Amino acid sequence: MKVAIYQFAPTFGNIGKNLRRIEQELENIQVDLIVLPELCTTGYLFASREEIGSMAEPVPGGESIRRLEALCQWKGFHLVAGIIESADNVCYNSAVLIGPDGWIGTYRKIHLFWKEKTWFAPGNRPFQVWDIGMARIGIMICFDWIFPESARALALQGADILCHPANLVLPYGPDAMVTRSLENRIFSITANRIGYEERGGKKLTFIGKSQVIGTKGEILLRMEEEEKIKTVEIDPALARNKKIIEANDLFQDRRPELYLNQSQIPSPSPEAARNKINVNPIFHPGEADGD
Amino acid sequence: MKVAIYQFAPTFGNIGKNLRRIEQELENIQVDLIVLPELCTTGYLFASREEIGSMAEPVPGGESIRRLEALCQWKGFHLVAGIIESADNVCYNSAVLIGPDGWIGTYRKIHLFWKEKTWFAPGNRPFQVWDIGMARIGIMICFDWIFPESARALALQGADILCHPANLVLPYGPDAMVTRSLENRIFSITANRIGYEERGGKKLTFIGKSQVIGTKGEILLRMEEEEKIKTVEIDPALARNKKIIEANDLFQDRRPELYLNQSQIPSPSPEAARNKINVNPIFHPGEADGD
Question: Which pTM does this prediction carry?
Answer without folding.
Answer: 0.90
